[in-house]
Amino acid sequence: MTRLLLLGPAREAAGVRHDEFDASTVDEVLRLAIERYGAHFERILAVSQVWVNGEVATPSDPVHPNDEVEVLPPVSGG
Predict the structure, then answer these.
(1) CATH number assigned to the domain comprising residue 65
(2) 11 CB-near residues (< 8 Å, 6+ apart)
(3) What is the bridge-based pairing of β-strands 18-21 and 49-52?
(4) Is residue 78 a part of any domain in this protein?
(5) What share of the chain in percent tops pLDDT 70?
(6) Beta strands in 1-78 (DSSP E)
(7) Statement: residue 14 has pLDDT above 60
(8) What confidence tens digit (pLDDT) does each residue in 46-70 have?
(9) Which domain holds residue 64?
(10) Which of the 8 DSSP states describes residue 59?
(11) pTM flag (> 0.85)
């Protein structure tokens, strides 16, 4: 299973910090997460960066068991 790590607003929208999905690409992980967590999560995802194992990812990148997909929403502060 591929682990999904959610930070900041993505975690708040999903209601969990991490989850696991049986998927073969980044896109598949994210589609399954949207199905599970709903429209608010999808809106946060639209403005977030996605990384796999600490590297910037594209939707078509493959994922494997024990990989970690991280959703990094934009951070604001001052």
Answers:
(1) 3.10.20.30
(2) 17
(3) unpaired
(4) no
(5) 96
(6) 2-6, 18-21, 49-52, 55-56, 68-72
(7) yes
(8) 999 999 999 999 999 999 999 999 9
(9) 2-72
(10) T
(11) yes
